[in-house]
Design goal:
Elements (H helix, E strand, L loop, with lengths): L1 E2 L6 E2 L6 H9 L6 H5 L3 E2 L8 H12 L3 H11 L12
Antiparallel strand pairs: 1-2, 1-3
């Protein structure tokens, strides 16, 4: 999950290459929601071996209320650290 800032706009998506996709969002290389809303921080992620399972989880979470997404981030990453560097 990308975010614009602490308690800011969250963005949820699926990718098979998290470091590359995060880099694209951080550097505003992708037109769309993340660029328009400044979602440049990787604040939460889950890893799956099965892409279909990851997509099911994404669709499930996209139905969540914003408050639930914020609570998940707060529980797993209370400081809202940018997790990009932890990928390497």
């Amino acid at each position: 999950m990308m975010a614009s800032r602490r308690n800011g706009t969250p963005y949820l998506g699926v990718t098979s290459d998290l470091p590359a996709r995060t880099y694209q969002h951080r550097n505003a290389l992708v037109d769309g929601f993340t660029k328009e809303h400044g979602c440049t921080m990787l604040v939460w992620f889950e890893a799956y071996d099965d892409l279909q399972e990851a997509r099911r989880r994404e669709l499930q979470m996209k139905k969540w209320k914003r408050a639930w997404k914020i609570a998940l981030i707060e529980r797993e990453n209370p400081q809202w650290r940018d997790l990009f560097e932890t990928l390497f």
